[in-house]
């Protein structure tokens, strides 16, 4: 695969994740009825849910900016980890959160060669 194809693939996946996280954060920040109903079923009040949406949008912005994208990736991975645990705790399906987590890691591996190298290389030069 050419470098151009790899770069385009990375950015396409980034845009897809960006749209997904934007929609999710928007629903939390605007206090969408469906989102609030799910949050209350988990025992999360509206103010806390808005704060979670704020954390999500900040993490997403960091993920989209190339200079801070690795930090944003790690924050979104942690965010999704919390979502997975919350769903497990309440016997809800974790499939969607796990799929998004996998796509996020694939995107990070494509966009950040240095991260891919550190995670996948077995030889330690030090």
TrEMBL record:
<feature type="transmembrane region" description="Helical">
    <location>
        <begin position="94"/>
        <end position="113"/>
    </location>
</feature>
<keyword id="KW-0812">Transmembrane</keyword>
<protein>
    <submittedName>
        <fullName>Membrane protein</fullName>
    </submittedName>
</protein>
<keyword id="KW-0472">Membrane</keyword>
<dbReference type="Pfam" id="PF13564">
    <property type="entry name" value="DoxX_2"/>
</dbReference>
<keyword id="KW-1133">Transmembrane helix</keyword>
<feature type="transmembrane region" description="Helical">
    <location>
        <begin position="49"/>
        <end position="65"/>
    </location>
</feature>
<dbReference type="InterPro" id="IPR032808">
    <property type="entry name" value="DoxX"/>
</dbReference>
<dbReference type="GO" id="GO:0016020">
    <property type="term" value="C:membrane"/>
</dbReference>
<feature type="transmembrane region" description="Helical">
    <location>
        <begin position="70"/>
        <end position="88"/>
    </location>
</feature>
